[in-house]
Design brief:
By secondary structure, the protein is an all-alpha fold. The protein has one domain. It is built from three helices and no strands. It has helices at residues 2-7, 22-36, 60-67. The longest helix has 15 residues, at 22-36. The radius of gyration is 15 Å and the shape is elongated. The mean pLDDT is 85.
Length: 68
């Protein structure tokens, strides 16, 4: 995906991180600033569902964990 974005004239980086880990999030922020300059906007679109349970069948506790 990154190569496609760059080939189209855009800027992109790819990093793997656990958004539940403060250390990982700090590393993401540092990488973003190093690549693109000051961060002015963040969009959290990360979540995980390790149970495979459809969202309508998850408990509130599970949903809270999925959404971080």
């Amino acid at each position: 995906m990154v190569s496609e974005i760059v080939a189209a004239g855009g800027k992109a980086i790819s990093r793997q991180a656990d958004v539940g880990s403060e250390t990982d999030v700090e590393a993401l922020y540092t990488a973003a600033e190093a690549s693109f300059g000051p961060v002015r906007l963040l969009v959290n679109s990360a979540g995980f569902n390790m149970t495979g349970t459809p969202v309508q069948d998850t408990s509130l506790a599970q949903f809270d964990r999925i959404m971080g």
